[in-house]
UniProtKB/TrEMBL annotation:
Gene: LOC125421871
Sequence ranges assigned to domain Serpin in this UniProt record: 19-393
Listed name of the protein: Serpin-Z10-like
Recorded family membership: Belongs to the serpin family.
Ranges annotated as spanning the membrane: none
Phylogenetic placement of the source organism: Eukaryota, Viridiplantae, Streptophyta, Embryophyta, Tracheophyta
InterPro entries in alphabetical order: Serpin_CS, Serpin_dom, Serpin_fam, Serpin_sf, Serpin_sf_1, Serpin_sf_2
Classification via SMART domains: SERPIN
Amino acid sequence: MENSTQSNTTTLFNTDFCLQLTNQILENEASNGSNFVASPLSLHVMLSLIAAGTKGQTLQQLLHFLGSTSIHDLNLLASKIINLASPAENLAGGPLLSFVNGAWIDRRFTLKSSFQEIAKTSYKAELKSVDFVAKAEKVVEEVNLWVEVATKGLIKQLLPARWPDRETVFVLANALYFKGAWDLKFDPSMTQQRDFHLLNGQIVQVSFMSTQRCRRRLYRSFDGYKLVQIPYQSGQDARKFSMYFFLPNKKDGLPNLIQMVKLNSGFLNQQFKIGLENMSDFWIPKFKFCFQFEASETMKEMGLKLPFEPGEMTEMVERGNSDHGLYVSDILHKSYIEVNEEGTEAAASTAVRGPRSRASIPSQSFVADHPFLFMIREETLGIIFFVGAVLNPLLDA
């Protein structure tokens, strides 16, 4: 099932920074016992759109962190990703998938024609002129409704009520939606309550899914963890999506697994050389939760600082409008995921605010009865759509 001949897009789509960012936040949340989910793809495309509005050292820093050599290559890659994530039509039998971008610009400012062209062609972004001075609350409602519609109601209230203020010049946002059915569905009649071991030693009763005994699954055992790959139905769709479950061997092994991922660049992008194995004991917990975080401070700690300082974000609006210096003040990211017997439904949205200065033979077992990592990846291009961790399947259910 593994694809060893992936497109050059894989090497160009450098998720390292966005994966390191999400891993850093995951590490903090794991110590609090919180579930976590985020979309590296959503974050990557948003940072790419920010890069399209910058120049000089700020642009070079963004290119460095996004693993690209030029803004042209970055825009071309963004276009490929958006076409992959939001095709002209969802083909029969494949996952339902959509990805949209939007930009809300204060009416006091005029977009540069060059940025406008890039936003429309490469990012397929909706561009809207709004009034942040007198109607900020209405703009918040508009953006939140846009996100809610784009994510089929899964993500509500992305922007806080008072997020934009009189100094806000722009809000950039995107919204990603995914719904895939398992290629081999779980049997609802076999779903049962079983023990799930939390990191603090407590045990909770959770609904676990399974299939007929000795069903062959894509599985491999590594040093310290086991891995199962569960493909989604593809039908006539050339894209091939799978969900991966990374289960530590030890009940309290998630922190060590997080460190392994953190210290090994490209860990989640690799080809795992998984083989079909008979599963004598196979149980995956059902879960459903939402997670939101503000990313700007973590990005600064990781070295991406210049976009958050006034100076070189001059390629978005006409000069005269931008004499005071535009910059990014906040980056909000919110994701949702539900995993059940039928498949997976997931969504993510990222918003940026920019003010002016004053943003085989033996049988194996796989029983996910303790905290684990997961990801959803498109196999033909190797692009990671979602990553996360389940520490307690009951949280936010």
